[in-house]
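Lecture notes, unit on protein representations.

Consider one protein chain, 315 amino acids long.
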Amino acid sequence: MDTPSASFTKLVPGMVGMTLVGSSVTVSRTLVDAPLFTTQAVRYAAATVILLLMARLTGARLLWPRGREWLWLVGIAVTGLVLFNVAVVRGVGHAEPAVVAVAVACVPVVLGVVGPALERRRPSRQVLLAAPVVMAGAVLVEGTGRTDAVGVGWAMVALVCEAGFTLLAVPVLRRHSPWGVSVHAMWLAGVLLAVLGVTSEGPSAVRELSGSQWAAVGYLALMVTAVAFVVWYSTVRAVGAGRAGLLTGIAPLSTAVVGAVSGSGAPGPSVWLGIAVLILGLVGGLRPHGGTARGATARDQSATADSAPASARST
């Protein structure tokens, strides 16, 4: 049985990943005027190179996909990386950014229900009760905004894509590890985005990036892509998609804190209330108990047994 400290340790990588994602909002604003597809293609290409170097230094073994694994990995690249970016950009053209953020805040509920089904186990009652609380806290932190029917549609697409980023990885995480899933999703997305960039923005679009935008791309490639992807998938594999999904609530929390520190002003009363609700949901959903600990231990032993013959690698 896992001790409370051991259970918490498994959550730390995911917490770090969501903190990095939330803190990247300020950096991402630098890229508002940059060519979307070209910039993202450069980001994922750079992240792939960085992650390959990191994998080599750590001794992580990367396996080439086979059979149906291609479908899952291409699905991650298309939905979680390419289409998600399109949905956000097109969505804010018809809705205020908060509307898209609120839709994405529903991810813990989706992961809490669908994630266990993919992992062939029952949804956790603890997670199902905590997920709406985390969602409500995120909505309070992000706020709401005006939209039209098209904006709502794109917001829903963003929600599905954000959930797909985690759910589509579940069937391939055991064989490929967080390292392999991250690398393959990145290079596939980089190729797709490069094609979109060349056809829609032109091959010279990369020259439009300024020095500050190149710096932003570098930060996103290293911290928010290469590092955040691996630590996030590590937590998904360790504790399951449902429980890990609650950690997405840390992203808006991190955004609010970074915004206050960077000079955006102190959060308003509704944001403080949202932060309190978020923390309440996270504590309630992530606290270990006997059943969760035993289930986690069983999953870990199963994962070890299935993945050990495939490769000898550390995550």
